[in-house]
Amino acid sequence: MIEIISDWLTRREEGQGLAEYALILALIAVVAIVALLFLGGTVSSVLSDVGNSI
Fold first, then answer.
1. How far apart are CA 20 and CA 27, in angstroms?
2. Over the stretch 10-46, which tens digit does the pLDDT of each residue have?
3. Could you give the CA distance from residue 4 to residue 12 in angstroms, rounded to a whole number?
4. pLDDT value at position 8?
C-alpha cells in the first residue's frame, strides 16, 4: 500500500516539473516576441545595410 502511494506521489512530482518547464518555455517565448517587436525595425535596418554593402 505504501509503495502505491509513493509511486503516485512520484508521478505527481514529475508532472509538476513538466508544468514548470512549460511555464519557463512560455515565458521565454513571450520575452522573445516582445524583443522582436521592439527591436524588429533596428534588426531589419542593420540587415539591409549589410546587404547593401555587399
1. 11
2. 665 555 678 888 899 999 999 999 998 998 888 888 8
3. 12
4. 60
Q: Grid coordinates standing for 10?
A: 512520484
Q: Which residues contact 36 (CB under 8 A, 6 or more apart)?
A: 43
pTM of the model: 0.53
Length, in residues, of the chain:
54
Task: Give start and end residues of each alpha helix (H) in the chain.
Answer: 2-53
The torsion of the CA quartet 5, 8, 9, 11, rounded to 10 degrees, works out to 160
Q: How many Å from the N-terminal Cα to the C-terminal Cα in the chain?
A: 72
